[in-house]
Amino acid sequence: MFAKLVAVSLLTLASSQLMAAECETTIDSTDQMSFSTKAMEIDKSCKTFTVKLTHSGNLPKNVMGHNWVLSKEADMQPIATDGLSAGIDKNYLKEGDARVIAHTKVIGAKETDSVTFDVSKLDANEKYGFFCSFPGHISMMKGTVTLK
Ligand SMILES: [Cu+2]
Description:
This is Azurin. By secondary structure, the protein is of the alpha/beta class.
């Protein structure tokens, strides 16, 4: 009787977790200039979405700093180029850059930062991507963002 009850409640728990959209994700960054993913999916039923950025390497942020920046795919390289001269204190992003939809700050080894944005800002007919705007990193540190 007890075992049956446990089994039923575990099943209920499992199915409710399947139904609820995951509205947050954690992305790790490394000393090898990489993100732990190249493709992110955002569920349209999420009101907001949170990205938590971690850095599992050992290098400080002035040497191997990383941030996570979300924009339209076409804006990624121009944002990174314009951010070069902004410097690390401005997270290598031009101040007030309206093309940036969301971004974390630049972090170094063992640091974390997170950002939450409105999913309603994203248009299902548009292509989005994420990247790191630390100088030179966008060539390796970028990926796609898909609304599903
Ligand atoms: Cu980086």
